[in-house]
User: Which sequence fits this backbone?
């Protein structure tokens, strides 16, 4: 990549490295994924591409969470959330909040996890994202399961399943049943 083409090609270059990083993450090769996403983040930062900067931090949050590095994961998710809010990207705001809730859930800070989940559910509802809504409902139910609050867990998990059945969300079904 030539320096004079950096601004013209940076979005595609950054997106490509984000995609490669996501593949490495899905394959469980977190060190490679982290390195690839660092390259994407560097390029996006050089030209102040806030959308790819946001995506890079969100992906780094996912990786750090899977490595049980919760403090680092939370830092990256919070940065992604700030970029999403600045770009008024409600879908990314909700996704970042969902990720943040997962960190708090892993740390057994259930109140904070629940707060972020309900906020993400509200946003998914407002923007009409049925799969996101289903995922949030499932995560809320799973959170109550961890706390042995059986009635609440059943209520939210059933709401998620009903949404899948009534909307025929085949994509959401795998997400919903994953937890």
Assistant:
């Amino acid at each position: 990549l030539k320096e004079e083409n950096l601004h013209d090609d940076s979005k595609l270059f950054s997106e490509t490295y984000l995609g490669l990083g996501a593949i490495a993450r899905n394959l469980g090769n977190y060190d490679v994924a982290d390195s690839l996403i660092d390259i994407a983040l560097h390029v996006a930062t050089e030209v102040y591409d806030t959308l790819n900067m946001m995506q890079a931090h969100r992906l780094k949050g996912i990786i750090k969470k899977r490595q049980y590095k919760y403090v680092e994961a939370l830092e990256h998710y919070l940065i992604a959330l700030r970029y999403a809010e600045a770009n008024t990207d409600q879908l990314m705001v909700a996704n970042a909040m969902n990720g943040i809730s997962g960190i708090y859930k892993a740390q057994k800070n259930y109140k904070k996890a629940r707060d972020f989940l309900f906020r993400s559910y509200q946003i998914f509802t407002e923007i009409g994202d049925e799969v996101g809504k289903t995922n949030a409902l499932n995560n809320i139910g799973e959170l109550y399961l961890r706390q042995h609050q059986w009635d609440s867990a059943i209520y939210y998990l059933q709401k998620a399943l009903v949404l899948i059945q009534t909307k025929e969300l085949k994509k959401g079904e795998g997400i919903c049943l994953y937890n």
